[in-house]
Amino acid sequence: MCPVYHDALWGEISLSEPVLAELVQSAPVQRLKGIHQAGASFYLFPDKRPNTRFEHSIGVMHVLATLGAGLEERVAGLLHDVPHTAFSHTADIVFPNDEHNFHERFQHAIISDSSIPAILSKHRVDLKAALEPDSYPLLEQPLPDLCADRIDYALRDMFATGKIMPEEAGRFMGRLVPAERGVWVDDADAALWFALLFSEANDTHWTGPQEAGAYWALAGAIKRSYDIGAFNDEDLFSTDDAAMAKLRASGDAVIDAYLRLLTPGTTFYEVNGAGPSITTRMKQRAVDPLVIESGWDGPRRLSAISDEYAKLMASTGAVRNNYYKLWSDSIEPVLAKTLEG
Description:
Layout: E1 4-7, E2 11-14, H1 18-25, H2 27-31, H3 41-44, H4 53-66, H5 71-79, H6 91-94, H7 107-112, H8 116-122, H9 128-131, H10 148-160, H11 166-173, E3 176-178, E4 183-185, H12 188-206, H13 209-227, H14 233-236, H15 240-248, H16 253-260, E5 269-270, E6 278-285, E7 290-291, E8 300-301, H17 302-305, H18 307-316, E9 319-327, H19 333-340
């Protein structure tokens, strides 16, 4: 009897292929249970943001299966987040780059130094599935297109916050069409529903001032820990709990002050003009699904057939970095003094 995983969003997911069942039990995939999808934001909103990279990886594999993807691409979906650092995308603030993809630089190193190559070889699955997730068109696409990764994390996060129910996610899945370049939607209303949901998730769940402040605080603690030799790359590629324990054990007053900001109830607010402030940035995202309906000779962008969505895209664009000037009354003098210096 094949193993079955029960997912809060998608329900029962069968691991019928032996390679998938073995990979799910491997140490690199199991480590993802200890990495929260929300990264630093989890510490401000622990009850609302419980998703882990493990759940997301299983979900992406399921979305790919629903779309009819082959085994190799489903393996790629299961493994695509294996190189993630602790605290998810916090490393992108510690080591900034425009793409916010710090962890992807370590794909080959993390995979090669794990049990994954041997498992794939045993089951005669190309190692490419672990090393090149971007080469699978249903799994990964650049914005503003849809892909399995983007679909799962958006629906999963909005389910976690109570904005949608599994039945709604399931209905949307039924409108998806696998294409040569990513995923299309066969109904304009369904495409608009998802695009507006994605926009709401971006504004209220992923990139607002509270999220920006949380990421800034945790990144500050990590940078300081690196500077004083209390934290290293091994810690960064552990789990959230292990990495946080290492940060808390530093005994450094500045690190402790950073970490005390990661407490439910801490409020970050935008400031203007003179006075204390910190500047940070968050990656803003928007989708513009390709829609294909009966009788059309090809797909059309949602923004080309929906005036409502065209206005939204005109004001936001698909990808941008939003710079925040923030402060929090919870910032302690020892930290404020360091920031002034």
